[in-house]
Specification:
This protein is of the alpha+beta class and 165 residues long. The protein contains six helices and six strands. A hairpin with a 5-residue loop joins strand 4 and strand 5. Helix 3 crosses helix 4.
């Protein structure tokens, strides 16, 4: 059985793993979305394709793919793990996240400017030197309020929009 994602197919075969129906479906779901799906979200999408695949299979598959470094598992503070496919050839392969603490909206932040890249590189270099650590990657999440939630807060409490000194 062939996986619809050539990169994922090669990774599984290289590890000596079979391309099971569950793995194929889950990888295809993750490759076709920019959303950060929970295991439950993925399970309901899988069930729509193949109702015989259970939640435990979905969860074990996500765990395997995470351990293999094919899927990234995130905790955005809402009590649910969220998953995202890691693929070096994707345009947005490396990105940071903006997380709204009110509505839980998650924005992938990919359009880095040179100053940001330089700051991150300097930070990585300094941390690597200080702790004698070979840094391979990093994950950055920024938490705050999205534009919609900020507007709603200002409408309910106009003093939130003003600076006090």
């Amino acid at each position: 059985m062939r996986c619809g994602n050539p990169w994922a197919h090669q990774r599984l075969v290289a590890e000596g793993l079979r391309i099971t129906e569950a793995r194929r479906i889950i990888l295809n779901i993750l490759s076709k979305t920019s959303k950060h799906l929970s295991a439950e979200d993925i399970y309901f999408l899988v069930r729509g394709i193949n109702p015989s695949i259970g939640f435990a299979t979905v969860y074990r598959t996500l765990d395997l793919l995470t351990r293999m470094g094919m899927v990234q598992k995130f905790d955005f503070g809402d009590g649910k793990a969220r998953y995202e496919l890691i693929e070096g050839s994707r345009k947005d392969a490396h990105h940071h996240h903006l997380v709204c603490t009110k509505c839980r909206k998650i924005v992938n932040y990919t359009d880095f400017v040179d100053e940001e890249k330089e700051l991150i590189k300097k930070t990585e270099d300094a941390l690597a030197k200080k702790h004698r650590f070979d840094i391979k990657s990093h994950i950055i999440h920024f938490y705050g309020l999205c534009e919609t939630c900020r507007s709603e807060d200002k409408n309910h409490n106009p003093s939130l929009g003003k600076l006090s000194m």
